[in-house]
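Archive entry: two folds, one per protein. Generate the first.
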Amino acid sequence: MSKYKTGDCPRCGRKNYRITKGVCHNCYRKYVWPRKKATCIRCKRLMFLKGRGLCGGCYNIIYQLENAKAHNYKKWHNIDLETYRKITSRCMICGFDKIIDLHHLDNNKKNSSETNLIGLCPNHHKMLHTLKYREEIFQLLKEKGFEPRTRKLREDIRGSY
């Protein structure tokens, strides 16, 4: 026999093993529990605190952002966080190391082998995807030892580039 009361929650109607003050535990935490507003120690706003004296947004930024990034890299690129950090440590063209984008050399997002991925700064990455500067960036990558897959464009649709 459980030490908790069991039954149906009158608020949500679900069958629960744990009833607190006449409602299930989830409804109690959501609607009955007296939450107190306090000032967040980081952003100084008066809000409901999540933990460690921080509001929900500040708590997630400080403690959960790296976990979310790791999950997204794994989901989007099918690579682990350490591999992503190694590839995006600096731009392969200019050596910039502050903000680095991931680029697939063969333009196939599903091919996530380490030999197909390079890190580029936002300027060079945008130039690579802009028709006007593409050949210049391809030449710089070839000088650095990378072999990007180039697409041949018909002259009649190429225009003045």
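Generate the second and append.
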Amino acid sequence: MTYLPEPPAATAAGQAANPLTDAVIQAAVDNAIEKARQHDTTPQVVIGTAPPVPQPGRPPMSSKATDDSVRMICFGGMTLFTCGGVSLVMVTSEFADPTAIGVFFGGLAVLALAIARLLRRAGQATPAEIHNHYDGTVYQDHSETHTSTRGVWAKTNNNP
């Protein structure tokens, strides 16, 4: 550890400050700061033109390659579940019964068709986008209607 010199005593009344003492103090402070920087062990950020170094683990890939690999993993899982279902049907029926396998895959096909039809109808249910083009003065009414229904015999009052 660097020991700094003692600060000089306050100057007596009527005496001028010693500029040499101020220079010594400043040099000591600069020296202490420089030694602290030299003993600093934190890694410094290096900025340069060198390309990045690949890190251990999965190699760097483009976003398309990453998306494709995820699709392949999902397709493999889907295939595993489908084959598992077929083998479960075969085990429960105790032999490869074509009717049982047909019912299984027919159920999957009906489910897929039902979902596709549901999505198509949901697309048709959305209202069409309407664009109105007006010429001349247009008046827009921004009034609000407050509705209240009260009483045993309901009476609705619409107040603007």
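Annotation attached to the second fold: The chain has three helices and two strands. The longest helix spans residues 63-93.
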